[in-house]
Amino acid sequence: MNRRHFLAGTASAAALLAGCASSGESPPNTDDPTTDDPSRDPTTEPPTTEPPTTEPPTTEPPTTEPPTTEPPSDGAALVNGSFESNLEGWTKGKDLPADPNNPDQKVDSEIKVTTDRASEGDTGLFGFLDGSADDGTIWVQQEADLSEVSTLKVDGYSEQESFNTVLQVATYAGPVPEDGLVERDFDRSNSLWDHEGWKTYEYDVDHDGEGLIAVGLNIVWETNAAGVLDNVRLE
Ligand SMILES: [Ca+2]
Hints:
5-stranded antiparallel β-sheet
């Protein structure tokens, strides 16, 4: 009885020893594959360092926006050229003859803004002249930089078209006269009554640098006459 138990005991012990031995043999076979990978990785990494160098160019586009602020510098900007702010920026002027019926006085005239008519906005420049002496000029003027200016434009309104030259558009664009403007300084080549309604008159501007702009009316007929001007601009 005692010997069987011993053999049984040694058999089970041998089985345990055999189990331990078999489980300890397998680990060495898994080491080989892992040693190949480390040698491949270093050669494949360099290409990944190039992409970052292409990012900086994306910061340049914003520098193309400033040029949009340059257009306003073209030509000279007249102050209140459309008379929407009363006569702000303008100074009244007149060169009138003596009134034949009252030699001690000049002929009657008036120049002011009006909301009765306008070619642009709500307000225009109204002018009235008593033509008793067949003569007389009234205007508004303002100084402006004419360096980049080649054209003076002004809109004129006439109630009727007439073959007779009664009222003329009077304009000036040139150097600032030391003694101020007089009738003969003005371009009076256009009759305001050469049409009915609104019309744009254009004049060449040859002067460069600081100068004077003036627009108004000149009467050459023995009658009373009125007209409206608006939207004076320099181009
Ligand atoms: Ca106007």
